[in-house]
Design brief:
The chain is α/β, with parallel strands linked by helices and 338 residues long. The protein is built from eleven helices and ten strands. 42% of the residues lie in helices and 19% in strands. Strand 2 and strand 3 form a beta hairpin. Bound molecules: 5'-O-[(R)-(carboxyoxy)(hydroxy)phosphoryl]adenosine (KG4) and zinc ion.
């Protein structure tokens, strides 16, 4: 089965053609980050307008790259939420019209389930059951995954998402959006032991996160050392990143041990952070835990993960109706299928 995936939940217009579980025939991502950069974050109205401009060229390029006739497509899967309502509507409405006009199977996909599925878009995939982290600009969720369709939410952020914390710290230091990659690069030049920022673990047993405290601590430090910022910026980045990664690693390893899993799969934009991946591999070596991270281009928002999740839903005859609509907030049962 060949599925056309479409993703437009935030600031990437993406389309991909995926055959069965994990054969990516083509994947195209049109990013808007250059436009949002000057505002220091995503402007929802601008994002929607950019999606309208990009959607048709992105679909055309996806077909062209796969050297595939439109007639070969068996089904269409589009991100239904969570995300920015106006942005979601563009990809989702396009997908519905595309499927309806061609009499194709259609399914709406939960964006977070899509991220979890990015772990399957590889030759080397985690065995069930495993612990999955979705760490992006909007979410920091830990799941216990014991089948292709069962994702038990073990914990989530109570305030800012981890990617959002990276973005906000970057903005505070005048380094632009998105901040994750910039902070990671700066941290490499700094000493993470020089400035200690707090680690927020909440209750010992909890798998929830809170990143607003560390963000405020960085802001306080920057305000108090404003005249010396240039000299300190690398150590600030390193100290901040170390604090955030310590919390992520600790909770992931605890979740993995508690649920007797042998694999942790990290996904979402923050999973592209090589320092995170390398430290996690190192910290889990003696515990016999294997770490999985998607290829860099599959960590951030993409449509291949949406097509892969869509394939599994369509395979099990889970279709969406054409009067289904998008949603902005995280919902456990997004498409009313379960
Ligand atoms: O998954 P994603 O592309 O979009 C959402 O669904 O939000 O994640 C984007 C987030 C941004 O907050 C960005 O700063 C963060 O992922 N990010 C990183 C890195 N690359 C992207 N965070 C830390 N280190 C990175 N290398
Ligand atoms: Zn995402």
């Amino acid at each position: 089965m060949i599925v056309l995936g479409i993703e437009s939940s935030c600031d990437e217009t993406a389309a991909a053609l995926v055959e069965n579980d994990n054969i990516i025939l083509s994947s195209v991502i049109a990013s808007q980050t250059d436009i949002h950069n000057k505002y220091g974050g995503v402007v929802p109205e601008i994002a929607s307008r950019m999606h309208i401009e990009a959607i048709v060229p992105v679909i055309k390029e996806t077909l062209f790259k796969a050297k595939l006739s439109i007639k070969k497509i068996d089904g269409v899967a589009a991100t239904r939420g969570p995300g920015l309502i106006g942005a979601l509507l563009i990809g989702f409405s396009f997908a519905k019209a595309f499927a309806y006009a061609r009499n194709l199977k259609f399914v709406g996909v939960n964006h977070l389930e899509g991220h979890i599925y990015s772990s399957f878009l590889s030759e080397n995939i985690p065995a069930f059951p495993f612990i999955s982290l979705v760490a992006s600009g909007g979410h920091t969720n830990i799941y216990y995954v014991d089948s292709y369709d069962n994702f038990e939410l073990m914990g989530q952020t109570r305030d800012d998402a981890v990617g959002e914390a990276f973005d906000k710290v970057s903005k505070m230091m005048g380094l632009g959006y998105p901040g994750g990659i910039v902070i990671e690069e700066m941290a490499k030049k700094g000493d993470h032991k020089k400035i200690h920022f707090p680690r927020t673990y909440l209750d010992k047993e909890s798998f929830d996160f809170s990143f607003s405290g560390i963000k405020s601590a960085v802001l306080r430090f920057i305000t108090e050392h404003s005249e010396n910022l240039d000299a300190l910026k690398y150590d600030i980045a390193a100290g901040f990143q170390a604090s955030v990664l310590d919390v992520l690693k600790t909770k992931l390893i605890n979740a993995c041990l508690q649920r007797k899993c042998t694999s942790i799969a990290i996904t979402g934009g923050v999973a592209a952070n090589q320092t995170f991946y390398q430290q996690l591999v190192k910290d889990t070596q003696k515990l016999g835990i294997k770490i999985f991270a998607p290829k860099k281009e599959l960590c951030g928002d993409n449509a291949a993960m949406i097509a892969a999740r869509g394939y599994r839903l369509l395979l099990n005859n889970n279709y969406s109706k054409f009067d289904h609509d998008v949603f902005s907030r995280n919902k456990i049962d997004p498409i009313g299928l379960k």
